[in-house]
Amino acid sequence: MTQDTQAGVLGVQKKKSTSAFTRVARFMGIRAITLFFTVVIGVYTTILIANMGGYVDTIMRNDIRERVNQRVAASTANQNISAETRRQMADELIALEEKRLGLNTPFAIRSFRYLTDALQLELGRAQNMVSDNGSRTVRNIILERLPATLLLMGTSQLFLFFFSVFIALTLSRAYGSFWDKMVITLSPTSAAPSWFYGIFFILLFAAVFKILPFGGMVDAPVPDNKFDYILNVLKHLILPASSLIISSLFLSIYNWRTFFLIYSSEDYVDMAKAKGLPSRDIERRYILRPTLPTIITNFALLVIGLWTGAIITETVFLWPGLGRTLFRAIGFFDTPVIVGSTIIYAYLLAITVFLLDFVYVLVDPRVKVGGGK
User: What is the pTM (predicted TM-score) of this model?
Assistant: First the structure.
């Protein structure tokens, strides 16, 4: 090969490399901007919904006026004060309370302040809720409840995911067998939500058999010994985790089983069988590997979904997690707590979606970042 030819080949390779880098950089920039705007729209929509378009301000003003009037009437009941003076005192206290909560600023302006602070992860202070140690900081409230949710949701959802995939892969080898038909028959049981199974389990195992606790995360008083404390928590974990698993188990197995059956009927799988390859090699190379992008996507979304908790199930079992905290925040119209939980989940979701595009390239050589050839 001549020097001119070598130079030409190197020039073509360099041009291709530059073109690929430009394509990837452009793709990353566009995707990051798109996801950021999606987060902004989602968080601002949450702010509007949490405040009912500003109607929550009216509810809070009425509640403040009622509480202040009752407090002023009680504190001046035995004093010779005119009604006009009492009214002035009440108006001053009402104005101070509204200023403390920011109600003296129009909602349209405050909504954008909420949005700006949320995007910077400045979660602020809760309006009505407090943590167990008395803190009103939203960050402390969320972090205090996070371990309980991670324990419940992590235990149940990770078990559900891996167990479903394993059983589905096993059933795909035995299509039409008794157990395969059994899973198909039981899949409609997932129509009932987890809290329904939770109430049923409470009635059966707590009320009738009295072998498991009704709810909570630990007995009162709390066991002093660390080992006894762990056993006590695990005992309280059984019912809520079981309700979350049972409510989705058979439908999840059915979905994955159908997914594996589709890939196991491909022509290249039949060709591998005809060559006499072992069944385990066929599953690993020709069935599991093409499905890795879908499996990874489901697993990634499951992991970040742990953040939201199970709102109704945690409430039914009095489980002190983020789901129950969010339920209480909605009831108290505590916008900072609602927005704080939402913005963190939105960022986690956006980052996950952004990174998945690159994970697909690593696990599937057919995928190119940015759709390049």
Answer: 0.82
